Amino acid sequence: MLKVNIIPLSVVAIAALSAIPLQPAAADEFSQNGFIMPSKNIYCVVYDEYLRCEIQSQLKPMPPQPASCNLDWGNGFVLTKNGNTEVLCAGDTIYSPNFPVLQYGKLWTKAGFVCESSTNGLTCINSQGNGFFLSREEWHIL
Fold first, then answer.
1. Please, what is the Cα angle at 35 between 30 and 38, to 5 degrees?
2. Which structural domain range is residue 48 located in?
3. HSE of 59 in the Cβ direction (CA atoms, 13 Å)?
4. Nearest-10 Cα torsion for 141, 5, 52, 61
């Protein structure tokens, strides 16, 4: 049985994410801070103190949407540099067609975050060891 830890998204986190402009000034500069998995289903980017990863097929199972989130829910995670993982509540996307592909079996490191791509899914952690596992079939908070 899949163990799912639901982390409520705080109003502060929503406000912080809404205040960060996600449209890059230059596509190449933005794309250098992220990657996409070979399946093209999962992609991530680092900005400020956050790692934001999205999954096109949405989280499965879908966690309950909190009343504090009136935007799109369950399209991925936000991991802070020194904090915990939260389910993504956002009305935009970080997708870029210019993201480099993180091949299966490879590691990606940026700004204190480490992500490992595998055929089973994506695992990302921060320097505190907090993070998540994400795949088309399941997810869990580390």
1. 145
2. 11-141
3. 26
4. 110
- For residue 88, being part of any structural domain is answered with yes
121 burial level (CB within 10 Å; 0-12, 13-18, 19+): buried
Q: How many CB atoms lie within 10 A of CB 55?
A: 24
103 domain-assigned? yes
Residue 4: inside a domain: no
Characterise 105 by phi-psi region: left (phi > 0), alpha (psi -120 to 50), beta (else).
Answer: left
Which two three-digit tokens encode residue 25? Answer: 């000034």
Residue 141, both tokens: 């908070």
Asked if the structure places residue 91 within a domain, the reply is: yes
H helical segments located in the chain: 11-19, 27-31
Query: What are 69-115's pLDDT values in tens digits?
Result: 999 999 999 999 999 999 999 999 999 999 999 999 999 999 999 99
For residue 16, give the 3-state DSSP assignment. helix
Q: In the chain, how many domains are there? A: 1
